[in-house]
Design a protein that fits this description.
The chain is an alpha+beta fold and 511 residues long. 57% of the residues lie in helices and 18% in strands. It has 15 helices and 8 strands. The longest helix has 39 residues, at 429-467.
């Protein structure tokens, strides 16, 4: 069973002559306790082309010390990483392999570096003996295990790691004392990064991997590919986050799939649709598999909020309990669906296809043209498509047909907004303002659609409550409130659209 630990630490350069200052003079530190020397033996794994290192991930199998086992570290921010641990085993545990899949694409991970560390440990504690931080002076011997490097490198470093629950300010206080003693921060973010740097031959550093032909950054192809790359990187990044059930991970991964699919449609003059259309269908499948979990999350939060607005005297029956049971069963099923999708061969094939797309992008003739004109034309084409759907929705009387038409307009508004946002680096503030107006339209339509879905769910819950012998009054009350909210959004819709469709908004993008 894997466990996760948030690691907050700072690293410093050291030599044989380095002497630690009196750290009891650091604010909050009352004593420095000697905890002896631990001998650590860690083998770091990566793909043959070092994909994990390129993304600042580290995977190791370590023996010795108190935390022997497999460790996988994900960067969170400077000096902060999430360390996921699994028990010591001869082979990589499946729980960690899954978290690496979007990077390795199921390529084998092999030993690349072995680090032998002699760790001299000290505990920094407060006046009650509570651990604040662990400081270690590490003497490191690195041995390169693949064929691309020199064999060994060695160095000393100081590492200060914040204790669980301790005030991060203690790291600043300790650093202040270290700097006064002449100790400077390390230039390497991790031991692995330093080992790879110091064991890579100079000739290999100078030549490096084969570089693609230089691209004119002002062309439509360069700008669109930059946006496409950003969305693909987000899909890769949030794959393990979804598996770990991190907050908002499903939503962010789903948005990336939608933005990418939208870009393929919007910029068909730039990217060959015979290549991107099939990828778009796979992205649609993935968004759908992730969607159940996200939609359930949004709907449950909405209904819970609506219940909180109802006076206690009008909550008749076990309303909150029924909602919790309904949410728990549907959430579990939705999560299982999302995880099954990420584990599937279909998802792996999609990841490989996206990787290949960046390596050999299917550029069309328009890709070589000046970016502003091409992108502006594409944005306005999506806007015209949205205008047609809005006109139809506004022409219909309130009812199911109009609800569906407004939902179709919402999807078109989202696509036009995504197109405008993708064009902001090229078109600047006019595109940004245009996207903001489109987002307002999308928000009104989105809240209307959420109300439609909520009403359907409330009716189902009312039927279930009635069948169980419970009062359905509160569910009917909530249904009525959602109906009123939906009607209010319908009244707001024309005004929001009028602002987005103002002639000056379109003209600004076209310039």
């Amino acid at each position: 069973m894997a466990e996760t630990k948030r690691e907050i630490e700072r690293k410093y350069e050291a030599t044989d002559e380095t002497e630690l200052p009196d750290l009891t003079r650091a604010a909050g530190v009352s004593a420095v306790l000697d905890r002896g020397v631990a001998e650590l033996d860690a083998v770091y794994y990566d793909t043959a082309d070092l994909r994990l290192a390129a993304d600042a991930l580290t995977l190791r199998r370590r023996t010795g010390g108190e935390d022997a086992g497999w460790h996988l570290k994900f960067p969170v921010a400077a000096g902060i990483r999430d360390e996921i641990r699994a028990p010591l085993a001869d082979t990589l545990p499946a729980s960690l392999a899954g978290l690496l899949r979007s990077r390795t694409l199921d390529e084998e991970v092999v030993p690349v570096v072995r680090l032998l560390s002699s760790r001299d440990v000290r505990h920094l504690v407060d006046d009650e003996g509570t651990l604040l931080a662990e400081l270690s002076v590490d003497t490191v011997l690195a041995e390169r295990l693949d064929e691309d490097g020199e064999r060994t490198a060695s160095w000393k470093e100081i590492e200060v790691e914040l204790a669980d629950g301790a005030d991060p300010g203690i790291l600043d206080a300790v650093e202040k004392r270290l700097k006064k003693a002449g100790v400077r921060p390390s230039s390497s973010p991790s031991k692995l990064a330093r080992a790879l740097e110091e064991t890579t031959p100079k000739t290999l550093k100078e030549t490096g991997p084969a570089r693609p032909e230089p691209v004119d950054e002002n062309t439509a192809g360069a700008r669109v590919l930059a946006h496409v790359r950003q969305q693909i990187e987000a899909i890769v990044l949030f794959d393990p986050a979804v598996r770990r059930d991190l907050p908002d991970a499903v939503h962010k991964m789903r948005v990336a799939t939608r933005r990418l699919r939208s870009a393929f449609k919007t910029y068909r003059k730039v990217l060959d649709r015979t290549v991107t259309d099939p990828i778009g269908e796979e992205l649609k499948w993935l968004a759908g598999e992730l969607g159940a979990a996200r939609d359930q999350e949004v709907l449950a939060a909405r209904l819970s909020g609506r219940i909180d607005e109802v006076p206690e005297t009008l909550l008749l029956g076990p309303v909150r309990a029924r909602l919790r049971v309904w949410d728990a069963s549907r959430s579990a099923a939705a999560r299982s669906t999302a995880l099954a999708a990420l584990e599937s061969d279909r998802h792996l094939a999609l990841l490989k296809t996206l990787d290949a797309l960046l390596t050999d992008p299917p550029l069309r003739k328009a890709a070589h043209k000046h970016a502003p004109a091409v992108l502006a034309k594409a944005v306005l084409k999506d806007y015209d498509r949205l205008a047609g759907r809005v006109d139809r929705a506004l022409s219909l009387a309130p009812g199911p047909e109009r609800d569906l038409a407004m939902h179709e307009a919402r999807k078109a508004a989202k696509r036009a907004r995504y197109a405008a946002e993708a064009a902001v680096p090229t078109l600047g503030k006019p595109a940004k303002r245009f996207a903001k107006r489109l987002k307002a339209v999308q928000s009104v339509l989105g809240d209307h659609q959420d109300s439609v879905v909520a009403r359907e769910t409330l009716r189902t819950l009312a039927i279930q409550a009635h069948a169980a012998g419970e009062s359905a009054f509160t569910w009917g009350l909530l249904h009525g409130r959602e109906e009123a909210l939906g009607a209010a959004r319908e009244r707001e819709f024309p005004e929001a659209w009028e602002r987005a469709s103002a002639p000056e908004a379109r003209a600004a993008v076209a310039r």
